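Researcher: Structure for this, please.
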Amino acid sequence: MTPKTHLSLLALVVLACSCNAMIPLASSSLLTSSSSTLITSEASSIDGTSSSSSSNSDSSSPSSSSSSSSSSSSRSSSATSSSSSSSTSSSNAGTGTYHQASAPAYNLNEVNRSIGYYPLKTTGNQKMLVVPVQTSDGPEWTPAMLERVRVALFGTAAETHYWESVASFYNKASYGAITITGGFADPLVLTDYTTSSLDSIGKNAPDNVVIPAFYQAASADLLKQYDQDGDGRVDATLFVYSNAYSRTDDSAYWAWVWYPDNGASLTKPQISTYFWVSYEFTNEGGTGSAIDAHTFIHECGHILGLDDYYNYDNEYDPAGDREMQSYNIGDQGMFSKYELGWVNPYVLDSNHPDTVTVPLRSSALYPDCLLLNDSWNGTPNDEYILIEYYTPEGNNYLDSHTKYTNSNLMYTNSGLRIYHVDARLVELSSDSDKSSTYTDTLNHNGKITFTGASNSTSYSYLSSNASTFKLLSLQQANVTSSSDKDALINGGTVSTTGTLYTAGGATWQAYSTIFPKGANTFNDGSKIGYKVQLASVADGVAQVKVTRY
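Model: Predicted structure, token format:
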């Protein structure tokens, strides 16, 4: 399922700010802390057992390494210094010198908050408030329906009889860094609105009807339970409506996430980040008793602050569609995980030899990835080449073996998945501004700062190069020349078996057809300077050979 009406961050600002005309509030039964049905479910851990929010204990390098301090990037005074660990004696060790970067000075959560969005925090124990919604003539919520939603959001993988819940998926995707739990408020019955009359309000229905009705009825005590960071905003609210969803443009009945600005109140926290989704999405995939959470998982990516990686403008799809934030399939890719603070990439030492071999384990199971850019600023918000070793296991397993609705299969083979990332920040005078003034510093010069490039031209914050500079561009093993017709930009498609870089296969290099500034050149005009090859795989560890050229 392609979430065709989910809005990018730019659209969220415009529409959220335009939702000022209030419609008379719907009626609702009064919600209090004591009367609310608070069903709390612990997230399941990677092995399916109950888990706390501790970090994955097996997050070390596959090589036996020792750490020493290295200097921070010269490009950014805000970037933190990296710890350096040379690969040494393990049989899975690489060659040459590289190190694992330390945590960045900021990640996507801080970037979003700097512009006035308040996504759910991405580590530790995080709670979401679930509000079942029904129209006056819509399907009535039953205990069985509520239980299906509970399992889809907070259940164990086994309870879904299909794949993963939101909680189990993100516990695995984050390598144990986040544990998502939550509870249910009493169903909100919109007695003054029929299915049709609510639909006539379109995408403004949640902001103009549902949120005001719920907020008026909810008790302050209930809302305070879900403001864990104490900023006067409910951390995340999930409005699940009982009506069927619709693919009609401008219908109220689809799935999306918004970050409205309703202010803040420590006395009675306001509704801020929320998603709006149909109960019927639990029935999309699988058969029989299967409970499907694909759409809930995709939307929860937005709750955590991620953007969509598919293209809204009927252009080519730069990310290649096989990604949770593209077409709702597979694991979150390493760019998303890096933005969310779940991985710190390996980078080459400044004095490395011309050839370096870096070992990477499966990104579905371990927080291993390699970042290439000799002038990297030390944060996710820069331009670089990002490399992971993809395998069809973990969160990738189901979608690499069984098609989800009308989507393609995830990659069915193992290999290197390589992306060109351009997540550089730009300075903005307002949240509707466009700019090509880049910065490495949040709120530099007192300006709003946000990621400039988007995978959709219409949602880019760039004032120039918006159609050519993309946020996340998949590199393809079947693209071997500057004029290759198989390149996505030339109308090519992604292959379930031919896109990843495999041992003994193609060597990656930056061909001009897929780099706007020409071969071997980043968008900022600097040289990339590397070729990449998967040299071998043994015992689940890929040896990534990086050669300077």
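Researcher: Any notable elements?
Model: Residues 1-61, 63-91 have pLDDT under 50 and may be disordered. The CA atoms of residues 10 and 176 lie 31 Å apart.
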